[in-house]
Structures are given as C-alpha cells and as structure tokens.
Amino acid sequence: MVRQGGEYQVGEYTVRRAAPDDVEGARSLMLDTFYREMGTGYVPAFHVDVIDLERTYLRTPGQALFVAERGGEVVATGGVRSGGPKSPPNPLWLAEHYARGATAQLVRTYVRPAHRRRGLARALVDLCCEFAAESGYDTAYLHTNPEIDGAEPFWRSLAKEVLDERPDGEPVVHFEIALPQSRS
C-alpha cells in the first residue's frame, strides 16, 4: 500500500475519495451486496442513502464516500456518515451512547468477492478514519453482519466490540474505533 496524496495505490487498485463519475459503480456494488451477499435486497428504511449517493456523501459536509477502483471499475466502497446508530432497530442504550455529535459512522464498507483479501477494505477504512478525524469526530461507530465471509475477523482486527447481538437472535456485531486527534 503506497500513499500518494489523498489516495492509496494498493497493487493495481487506486483507493480514493469518490467523484460523481463513481456514483453508479458504487451504487451497483452496494445493491449487489444487499441482494447477493446479505440476502435482504434493498430495504428503504436502512438503505435510502444508496439512492442518492451524491447528495448523501459527496455534497453533505462531514460525510464522504471512498472507492477502490481498477481500470475505471469500482470494486470496493467505504463511507462516513455523521452520527451513530438509531433506535429502533438498535438497542436504545446503544443509540443514546453515540447520540453526541462527535460520532462518525463507518458505512457501506463492501468489496466485491473477486477483489477481497488485497488490502482494499483496510485502505478504505484508513481513509474513512482520516476523514472522520479531520472533520472533528473523535469516535467511529460501525456494525457488521458476521455471517458475511471475512467481515467479523476484519473488524475485530481494527476495532473494539461494543455489542454482539447474536445471542438475541440478530446477526449484528457493533464496533467502535477511537480516532486520532486531527492534525489540522
């Protein structure tokens, strides 16, 4: 992984902040993940940001979308949104814990299966965390579906578990990443 300005070169891949030309490729990857990997399909209550990625991530201060691309194809995504989890569907205590304005939520960290295990997700998370710290957040919250191949061990290598909902019948594990102080 080689850093060049605001992006990383990871082998043949470029990992960088998304531009308007990346939106359709990013949306396609996200929808494929919902349908093919998660088996949920598009759920408006949880996935509304995917419909207008440009407004949500490219034009909203404090929020951003990052992509990994190779040859013009978006093969991985990672995003930052302001705020923590909502209740419902999450436990009220969890939503209240992250209700303060200094929490960034890492979202939409997806890598197409054929491009996994190449350092793309880690590079995306690094850029997301850098952006979050520079934007004034002090904590990054995220949740993952541990049934997706590789998701749980990946997040455990980077983050601290806050809550595992599997004993309650929900395939969700919640994590937190402390962000470094911004250098700006």
Radius of gyration using CA atoms only: 15 Å
Widest sheet, order of strands: 1-2-3-4-5-6-7-9-8
Q: Report the structural category.
A: alpha+beta
Question: What do the pLDDT scores average to?
Answer: 94
The N- to C-terminal Cα distance equals 24 Å
What percent of residues are in strands?
25-35%
Q: Percent of residues in helical segments?
A: 25-40%
Profile the largest sheet: 9 strands, mixed
Q: In DSSP terms, counting alpha (H) and pi (I) runs of 4 or more, how many helices?
A: 6
Secondary-structure element order, as H and E? Answer: EEEHHHEEHEHEHEE
How many β strands by DSSP? 9
Bulk shape? globular
Low-pLDDT parts are none
Overall description:
A nine-stranded mixed sheet has the order 1-2-3-4-5-6-7-9-8, with helices on both faces. It contains six helices and nine strands; from the N terminus they run βββαααββαβαβαββ. It is α+β, with helices and mostly antiparallel strands and 184 residues long. The chain has helices at 23-38, 44-51, 53-58, 92-97, 120-134, 151-156, and strands spanning 2-4, 7-10, 13-17, 64-70, 73-82, 103-111, 139-144, 160-164, 173-178.
